[in-house]
Target: UBC core domain-containing protein
Amino acid sequence: MASAASRRLLKEYSALQKEQSASSPSASLINEVSISPVSQEDLFYWTGVITGIPGGPYEGGCWKIDIRIPNTYPLHPPEIKFITPICHPNIHFKTGEVCLDVLKSHWTAAWTLLSACIAIRALLSDPEIDSPLNIDAANILRCGDTTGYDSLVRYFTNKYARLDR
Model:
């Protein structure tokens, strides 16, 4: 007998497959955020890719993510970490841990794995400097040096996450 978490994950996976094969208005999000289970035998471990937002310092970047889903999903959030190093105030540079309220206290069962990953992508262009995991990046923004911050982000994007590497 499948658990509630397994049924929910199977439903999300099925919806993702339909979304990827259809040319719907939200299909472009699939190109910006792509996720799937590592194997069909284990729906509790997924991987994915988040691409940088055009026109910003993350443009041209492609970051691999790791998604671990608890047995209590969707009542409790997944753990999503960046595998590819990324410079961002709310993402720990070494561990890839993400500080985002929807992955912690603001999680509800209405969120899906895809919507959580889309929220992480949105965080790239709208950092929250009051709850940083990368204090150095946050301090640059606190000082108002957006040019310096953008240069630092572009440097690390080019070094670790270029699509054309």
